[in-house]
Amino acid sequence: MPSTVAWLFPGQGSQQFGMGRDLAERYPAAARVFDEANAALGWDLRRLCWEGPAAELDLTANAQPAIVATSVAALRAALDAGLARGDPLCLGHSVGEYSALVAAGALDLADALRLVRRRGELMQAATSEGGMAAVLGLDADAIERAIAGAGAVVANDNAPGQVVISGPLDAIASSTHALRAAGAKRVVPLRVSGAFHSPAMRAVAPDLRRAIDAVALRELRYSVVANVDATPHDRARDFPDLLERQVWSPVLWVASIRRAAELGATTFIEFGAGNVLTGLVKRILPHARTANVSDAATLLATLAIFR
């Protein structure tokens, strides 16, 4: 049966001071997520999300579990408040794919949090002279042609005219000149600590795979459209390979959203801090219905539309 609703879960960069607090103060289901997170990690993630400091929250090893916990809290609050569950497709952007796997029933929340904490530690440790930049005004194919041979790669194909490149800092600099010459409106360096979703992260893959293999994956209740192939998967055994590849492969977000639409999705609901992903959906599918759940006000607005 085609899925008419897609659940979306954001990735790194969505973290913000106070995220999840309003929902947790109003919805016990969301509060319990932060209790579970503190117990699973052995430190106070709730305090970090709600009180900062922002510089500590932005660290990759901290941001990734914080984002997953906030997304799952938003989803559980919405379901507890009466959001129709239906038979959704699940999609997550980068680390958000772990949130999607929790939502789909494949990952236990505690396991997911410990896993993304380890993923963040590995990615943070692998950083050196790498970075990322958002390229505005060119599509992914034009960008690939412009930066060929420069040492950078397309890391996130987020929306038409909004693509992220990744690589060594000198490659980002030389690519910036080439992209401007090719017609890019802007090339904006991102506040990240390394060249994520690029070959620089291949060194992370073996240790990440060992961490993934140590976690029990259950069968999925809902299909998850994976970042690396923009294909729906309904078998848990597919995901160790997919998650290992994801850390050094591009996030095919445009193709994933279009694939969700081909499978019948007309409504896209984002769970977590902010509404970046639903904004991207509107650029990919201008006629799609979108909503987000990031606090009590947006939850109530979403319920009014989709209950």
Briefly summarize what is shown.
The chain has 307 residues and is α/β, with parallel strands linked by helices. It contains 14 helices and ten strands.
Put simply, the count of helices is 14
Low-confidence stretches: none
Summed over residues and divided by their number, the pLDDT gives a mean of 95
The rounded distance between the terminal residues' Cα atoms is 20 Å
Question: How many domain regions?
Answer: 2
Can you tell me the overall shape? globular
H and E string: EHHHHHEHHEHEEHEHEEHHEHEH
Percent in strands: 15-25%
Question: Could you give a short account of the major beta sheet?
Answer: 4 strands, parallel
Structural class: alpha/beta
Reading off the top of the CATH hierarchy, the class of the largest domain is best stated as Alpha Beta
CATH superfamily of the largest domain: Malonyl-Coenzyme A Acyl Carrier Protein, domain 2
Overview of this protein structure:
The protein is α/β, with parallel strands linked by helices and 307 residues long. The chain folds into two domains: 5-126 and 199-306, 3-Layer(aba) Sandwich (Malonyl-Coenzyme A Acyl Carrier Protein, domain 2), CATH 3.40.366.10; 130-189, 2-Layer Sandwich (Alpha-Beta Plaits), CATH 3.30.70.250. Helices cover 48% and strands 16% of the residues. It has a four-stranded parallel beta sheet with strand order 2-1-9-10, with helices on both faces. A four-stranded antiparallel beta sheet has the order 4-5-3-6.
